[in-house]
Specification:
Layout: E1 2-8, H1 14-24, E2 34-42, E3 50-57, E4 63-68, H2 72-95
Parallel strand pairs: 1-2
Antiparallel strand pairs: 2-3, 3-4
Helix pairs in contact: 1-2
C-alpha cells in the first residue's frame, strides 16, 4: 500500500509528515482491499488549514473526505473519522448479507 503526502501553498515539517503517515497507515484495518492513501494539505489559510484524504481500494469507488481545523493534525483527525465511517459502512454493506440467519427457513 502506498501513502502519498503532498502540500499546497507551503511546507509542513518532517515531524508532522511522519505523524500524518503514522495516523493514515491504520486505515486499512477498516477495509482490507486498500491500495493507496493520498493526503493533500492546503496551507492557503494559515489559521485553518484544509486536509483532503483520498483512499483508493480494489473493486470499489474511492473514499474521500476533506476538513478544516485549527492546525493540520486536528483537520487530519476529523477527515480520518469521516473516511473511517465511509469504509465501515461500505464493508458492512458487503458482508452484512452473508451473516444473517433466517428464522423462517425450514430446518
Amino acid at each position: 500500500m502506498r501513502i502519498s503526502i503532498s502540500t499546497k501553498h507551503g511546507q509542513i515539517p518532517e515531524a508532522v509528515q511522519s505523524s500524518i503517515e503514522q495516523k493514515v497507515s491504520k486505515l486499512p484495518r477498516y477495509f482490507d482491499r486498500t491500495t493507496g492513501i493520498d493526503v493533500i494539505v492546503d496551507l492557503k489559510d494559515k489559521n485553518s488549514p484544509a486536509v483532503e484524504l483520498l483512499v483508493s481500494a480494489e473493486e470499489t469507488k474511492d473514499f474521500f473526505a476533506t476538513d478544516f481545523g485549527s492546525n493540520v493534525l486536528t483537520a487530519l483527525d476529523s477527515a480520518i473519522q469521516k473516511v473511517e465511517s465511509q469504509m465501515r459502512k461500505h464493508k458492512e454493506k458487503l458482508t452484512g448479507h452473508r451473516n444473517r440467519t433466517h428464522k423462517d427457513s425450514p430446518a
